[in-house]
């Protein structure tokens, strides 16, 4: 009887749990979360305990997925649970289209109607959100979040911890550095250096403080 432990019972955690259930890979799914009171159920699933008590559940729940939106924290927790002895699961919704010739890193989630095409390589702990796509030969780093409806054309490279906002588009052969924020609806037509925020059509760099005022 296979069991999956999901780290985080917030909005993203609910979506991951739903995808895991629909995939049919696990008979039992449960959460760990530090904000939900216990005993508590979120949708159909129990919240068992706090995050720091995961080791008590290792034997019963050998598979774990970290369902936390913060990219850096997600990777940090993945490493923590891997060192405890958990297996970092990959969750793919059955409606997603993932090529047999694509490679997915551990702890990655592919949500409904997303597409990952032939030759694409995704690092550990990525989120390919609802209806997003990574086209042929794309190389996506660790801890990247490609938001709902965002589309990456062929041969795009994306560095670690980057966030591609909802509805953004990236043309072919563009390179996007690490820790980049691509704002919602942005069209990226040229390469982007690390630690940059880009918004608009076509994408232009802005300061991170400017982005906090509603651009992203």
From TrEMBL:
<feature type="binding site">
    <location>
        <position position="145"/>
    </location>
    <ligand>
        <name>acetyl-CoA</name>
    </ligand>
</feature>
<protein>
    <submittedName>
        <fullName>Pilin glycosylation protein</fullName>
    </submittedName>
</protein>
<dbReference type="InterPro" id="IPR020019">
    <property type="entry name" value="AcTrfase_PglD-like"/>
</dbReference>
<dbReference type="InterPro" id="IPR018357">
    <property type="entry name" value="Hexapep_transf_CS"/>
</dbReference>
<dbReference type="InterPro" id="IPR011004">
    <property type="entry name" value="Trimer_LpxA-like_sf"/>
</dbReference>
<feature type="active site" description="Proton acceptor">
    <location>
        <position position="136"/>
    </location>
</feature>
<feature type="domain" description="PglD N-terminal">
    <location>
        <begin position="3"/>
        <end position="80"/>
    </location>
</feature>
<dbReference type="InterPro" id="IPR041561">
    <property type="entry name" value="PglD_N"/>
</dbReference>
<feature type="binding site">
    <location>
        <position position="69"/>
    </location>
    <ligand>
        <name>substrate</name>
    </ligand>
</feature>
<keyword id="KW-0808">Transferase</keyword>
<dbReference type="InterPro" id="IPR050179">
    <property type="entry name" value="Trans_hexapeptide_repeat"/>
</dbReference>
<dbReference type="Pfam" id="PF17836">
    <property type="entry name" value="PglD_N"/>
</dbReference>
<feature type="site" description="Increases basicity of active site His">
    <location>
        <position position="137"/>
    </location>
</feature>
<keyword id="KW-0677">Repeat</keyword>
<feature type="binding site">
    <location>
        <position position="166"/>
    </location>
    <ligand>
        <name>acetyl-CoA</name>
    </ligand>
</feature>
<dbReference type="GO" id="GO:0016740">
    <property type="term" value="F:transferase activity"/>
</dbReference>
């Amino acid at each position: 009887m296979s069991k999956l432990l999901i780290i985080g019972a917030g909005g993203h955690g609910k979506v991951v749990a739903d995808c895991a259930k629909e995939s049919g890979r696990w008979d039992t799914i449960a959460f760990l979360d530090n904000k939900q009171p216990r005993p508590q159920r979120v949708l159909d699933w129990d919240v068992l305990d706090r995050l720091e008590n995961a080791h008590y559940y290792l034997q019963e729940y050998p598979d774990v997925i970290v369902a936390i939106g913060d990219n850096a924290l997600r990777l940090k927790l993945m490493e923590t649970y891997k060192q405890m002895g958990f297996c970092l699961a990959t969750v793919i919704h059955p409606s997603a289209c993932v090529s047999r010739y694509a490679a997915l890193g551990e702890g990655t989630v592919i949500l409904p109607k997303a597409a990952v095409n032939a030759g694409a390589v995704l690092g550990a702990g990525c989120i390919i959100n609802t209806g997003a796509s990574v086209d042929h030969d794309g190389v996506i780093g660790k801890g990247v979040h490609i938001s709902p409806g965002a589309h990456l054309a062929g041969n795009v490279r994306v560095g670690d911890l980057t966030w591609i906002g909802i509805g953004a588009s990236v043309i072919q052969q563009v390179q996007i550095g690490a820790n980049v924020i691509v704002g919602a609806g942005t069209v990226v037509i040229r390469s982007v250096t690390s630690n940059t925020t880009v918004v608009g059509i076509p994408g232009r760099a802005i300061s991170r403080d400017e982005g906090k005022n509603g651009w992203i």
